[in-house]
Design a protein that fits this description.
This protein has 302 residues and is mainly β. The protein folds into three domains: 123 residues, TonB-dependent receptor, plug domain (Ferric Hydroxamate Uptake Protein, Chain A, domain 1, Beta Complex); 93 residues, no CATH class; 27 residues, no CATH class. It is 15% helix and 39% strand. The protein has five helices and 18 strands. Strand 6 and strand 7 form a beta hairpin.
Amino acid sequence: MAQSSRLTLLLAALTLPAAASAQEAGQVIELDEVTVEAMRRAQPWLEVPASIGVYTRADIEARTIQRLEDAFDASVNTQMRSQRGGNDASVISIRGVANTAFGTDPTVAIYRDDVFVGNDATFNLTMVDLAQIEILRGPQGTLYGRNAIAGAVNVRSALPEYGATYTLFDALFGTDMTLQGRAVLNAALGRDMALRAVAFGDYADGWVTNAADGGTYDGDTDGGGRVQLAARPSDRLELLLSADYATDQGSRGNRGPFGTVWQDGYNAAIRLQPGDPGIPHGLHAERDAGLDARHLLPRQRG
């Protein structure tokens, strides 16, 4: 009994100073309310009856999220990897559910500004000037249709701001000729119209040297932009016109996009020629004039 009393007094002595200091400070920590549209309507994050990970603009900047794979690496029970080693053909897994078959429908539905992205080669492009990323875990076929048996992802761009005109610039310089540039222009075109334009570009020589040909890999060569025009003709109607463009010719993952992977041989690491040592006799290289790429095809033996 005496030992129990002493333990209670010790715990009280440890907790009282912390409580007293908090009361003396008189500070109340209030968290900003996060609004999501995971259920196809705007509602507070805590009221969404689903397992969802949300990254606000502040989170995106703090974690330097530039591609979708960066958000997946920071999330729980999610993974995103390239099927061919470069930026293209991304395989997305949520709670272990994924589809690794090349050319088939994905198991995770990707939406950018409420537009479905069906080509897996564009899942992992560079993203700039984002407002929020929402990752929904679990089947979402009721609201997102097919290709959402593992989950869904909503990527939302920053919208034009009415009554505000400003510019934002961001530049980065690093080793291996790493160059990054971002530019954002928000212009008020009257009281009920606004324009927002974004441009970006990345370049890096790469830091992995190919012993076969002396080239470098894991570099970046991409760029693009987005233009948005918003208007409010009335209190109950708001219009948004958006157009974007992006290109990616990097060589991340020691390989690169589909065109460069097959240009100089399988995985662009060793120049393969028919009859070279180490090449299976049942395979031969053949150039397709329509695709301007080499394919490894089984050779018929008769």
